[in-house]
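batch_manifest entry 22 of 60
target: Nuclear transport factor 2 family protein
source organism: Bradyrhizobium cajani
requested by: lab member K.T.
priority: normal
notes from requester: please return tokens only, no post-processing; we will run our own comparison against the previous entry in this batch. if the run fails, retry once and flag.
--- input ---
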Amino acid sequence: MNDEARLRTWNTYQAAWGPVGEDERRRLLEQSVAANCVYTDPGSRIEGRDALMVRIGQTQLKFPGAYFRNDSFVEHHEQGLFRWTMYDGIGRVFVKGESFGRFGEDGRLVQATGFFEVPAARV
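--- output ---
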């Protein structure tokens, strides 16, 4: 798997965090994340794709319409470092951060770790 394929996988994963329906979110995660993936960020540790579905849904409830864009990506040895910006539902910069991802043999993420300051809920 090359860096373009890993970036596509990461972009698919990030799209699942956006304002999409539950069926589409599940489809995106099935394409990009292993069933037994581990997700961590400053406020949570999630194990498994189903638990990640719940976590993403909670994020969309708290920050309706939020979505990500990648700012940069570097990778080596089935690992990637992604710098990103999260936007609120009307396109304003919401939070910036970095994430580390580790890819399994099938190319899907087996680990995703986010580093960022936890944003306050917006009114």
